[in-house]
Structures are given as structure tokens and as C-alpha cells.
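Researcher: Last one for today. Full complex below.
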Amino acid sequence: MTELPPFKLAGLLIARDLRLAARRWDQVLQPLVFFVVVITLFPLAIGPELSELRRIAPGILWVAAMLASLLAADALFRPDVEDGVMEQWVLSGQPLPWMLLAKTVAHWMLTGLPLVVMAPVVAIGLGLGSDGWSLMLLTLLLGTATLSLLGGIGAALTVGLRRGNMLMALLVLPLEVPVLIFGARALDMGLHGELVTGPISLMTAILLMALVLGPFAMAAAIRISIE
Amino acid sequence: MARRYGLFNRMGKLSRHRKGRDCSRIHVVFARRKAAEFDLLLSRHVYLPDRAQYFMSSVQAQRFASTATGALEVRDVHLWRGEHHLLRGISFLLDSGQLLQLNGPNGAGKTSLLRVIARLLPPESGELFWKGQPAAADYRQNMLYLGHSNALKLDLTALENLRFSAGLSREVSDAECRAALQAVAIPHCAELPARVLSAGQRRRVALSRLLLSNVPLWVLDEPITNLDVSGIAVVESLLAQHLEKGGMIIAAAHQALLAGHAGVRSVQLQ
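Model: Here's the assembly. Have a good evening.
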């Protein structure tokens, strides 16, 4: 038994998750539906005043994206832990942090990326013109990836608990709040024509840190959770 | 790793014992000072008067009779579950070509012991030796663990499940996977999602992984659960072939596996 080449291993895991998702569309769509519904409810509740909506649009987009990712995070590791597949991963002799990173990437492709793709459509309802789209896509791309990684740490820590969902939200929210602040702030500043390199750099820094440290935290948490 | 577990959990055992609850990791520093004192208590059976009866006496006798170093040695494993001292000083030695069957009523600690051996569960104290060395990272690559759960994704077909799970350890072809399903007599299930298979068929899919691995040590938790008579025969022939090739098997089961076979020993957990 030898270690597989890292990218082949990651490809194997991602392909499996995408195939599983293709057979369970209802579960994959859940966060996306949540995101779209929450955002479309705001204009209905607040009123159709476009200038008002445009002012709060960055905040709404970001809160909805964050809650959608939190909603999705619980399903990141739970199914694999419950049916015993995770045990086999731990025992497989392959590097567990790398495997969990691949799993998180697949999770982001299924729950984060659709939000980014859908964002321009729902943004129209909030009165955001096409001038802010590129910035919105960039911040959401950076942000959803970070949220998936942070959510993964919370999910790995609480996967051994029967009702870990609430605890996970408590654990993860403080970590995710900076992403929310900088994401919404960058979008807001961009819409007012200000320079956004500051918040974007900070978001990239948070993403890189989560990318490097997250998988090791997840692996350690998973090992404890399946004891 | 093994050394770390040993040190770490010795303290864990102490604090659990003193505090009576699962808070081992918090009391590590405090426990360090008291470890020596506690070992003394343990050896005098002050707290655990019935400890001796949990020793696997028959296996231990063989351990001392055999001078050869076994491939797998489990030495004095203790495990607590909450306030229950589940495994009390389990020691045994397993050589190639031998099957160790764990018997015992539900809740006796069979699964826990298997998970300790698979190194999924760190024991409070005790060590694992593989070929005379403390079990390290390469130990996992010599072992295949099939747990209670079949580790199947219900939305994937039997073939996809098998290809994926075996593919984590080495390159496997479709043909090999199909041959493995053929060997456990469910070739017709290859293209069916595991969701529609019966419990026995799912168990057979899980067991077909044994055919695709070439590791010496199999750790099996109730391998013949849900299987019919022909399924049990298939599994027994797999086990016998593995022993003939010099493999080692530890299995928990309620029925005798490979009764009458030369390399089979069984042990009663209470």
C-alpha cells in the first residue's frame, strides 16, 4: 500500500462527491434555495425603494451567503462519519488533511460556487447594477471559500455529537464574522467608488490562512470525533 | 504514536478513576504527579479486585509458551468507557496463519478492542507491537479493518463503492472489482445502488474488499452478520485462504468461525 499521488487522490475524492451530489440534488440545492429566498424576501419586506435597497444590499448578500454556508456545513462530514466511510479514510494511510481539504473543495463547488454564480441574478432584485458585479463576484468567491473551510473545522469538531448543529454555529460564527465584515465592507466601498484593496487583501489573507491551517485542524478534529 | 498514547492515557486513566467522569484531558498535568502512586494501587487490586479474571488466560499461556516474536502483540490494554472499566489488561500475541476469535456477550468490549487494535480508539494504557516494534505509521498499511458499518455510500452502486474504497489504497481496475463481487457471489449487484441491496448483500459488498487488499492483518467486526448459509461459507473460505497465505485475522463473532481449523483460537471477553 502506497500513498497515491496527491492530485489523483484529490481527484478521486472530488469525483466521488460530485457523483453523489448528482444523485441527491435536493440536498445540494438546499443552501442555494435558502440564499435566493432570503435575498428575494428583503425587497418584499422593506419596500421597492431602490436607493434604500442598494444601501443595504451588500449586507443582505453577505448575511445570506454566510447563513447559507453555515446551513450547508453540517452535511460536510456527517454522512461519511455516520456510514463508516470516514473510518476507512482515517485508516487508509493517505494524508487525512489533504483528503479533508479535497472534500471541502468538493463541498465548496456544490454549495459555495452556486451562490457566487447566482449572486448577479439576485443582486438585480436589490438594485445592484452590473457595475458592481465583478467586485461582488470577487468578494463572494474569496468569502464563500473561506466560509467553507471555517465551516469544515466546525463540522469536524461537532460531527461526533448527535445535535452538533447549534454548537457548530456558536463555534464557527466568531471565526466567520471577519469575513462577513470585510466582504460586506469591500462591496459597500466599491459601490461608492472607493479603493477596495484593503478589505480584499485582508479577505485573501484570511482565505490563505484557512487554506493552510484548516485541513490540519479538521484532521485532528475528525480523529477525535470518530474515537 | 504508540508511546504518546501510552503516556497520555495513563494519565487519563488516573483522572477518570479519581474523578469518576470523562475529563481525562483536562487533568493531565495534575495526573502526572499522581501516576506512580496510582500504578501501585492498581497492582494491589485495591480499586479493581476482579481485574484478574479479565485477563485472556488461554492466550497469555500461549504467549509465554511461544518464544517467537509474534507479528502482532497487544500488551496490557486498558480502556474505560465513561465510568465503566471495559477492557482490563488485555494481552495477546498473534502469529501469521492464526485467527483469533473474540467471543463475549453484547457490550463486553469486542468492538472496542477491535477499534483499539485498528488504532481508531486510543486505549487508556497499553501498547501495540507490530513485528516487535511499537506500532507506527506503517502499521496501518498492514491492516484492513471492517467495522460494524459497511462503509458503503447508499447512493453509489456496489461497483463504484468498491472501486472507491479499494482505490484509496492502490490502483484497482473495474475487472478486479467485478471479480471480487463474483467471488462473494453477487455479480448481479454490481450496477445496483447500495440503497436497494439487502443487508446481507451490502455485507457481501463490504467483505469483497478483503479480496482486493493484500495486507497481512484483517480486523473484522462481526463479519458474518446478516449473511445466509452460503454467505458464511464464502467468508469462511476467504478466511481460510488468508490464513494459508500466512495472514492474520482478529474477528469478533457470535458463531464459531473456521471451527476445527488449526490456527484458530478463541477468547472470551466478559
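The longest strand of chain B covers residues 84-94. Strands of chain B lie at 72-81, 84-94, 99-103, 125-130, 133-134, 143-146, 217-221, 248-252, 264-268.
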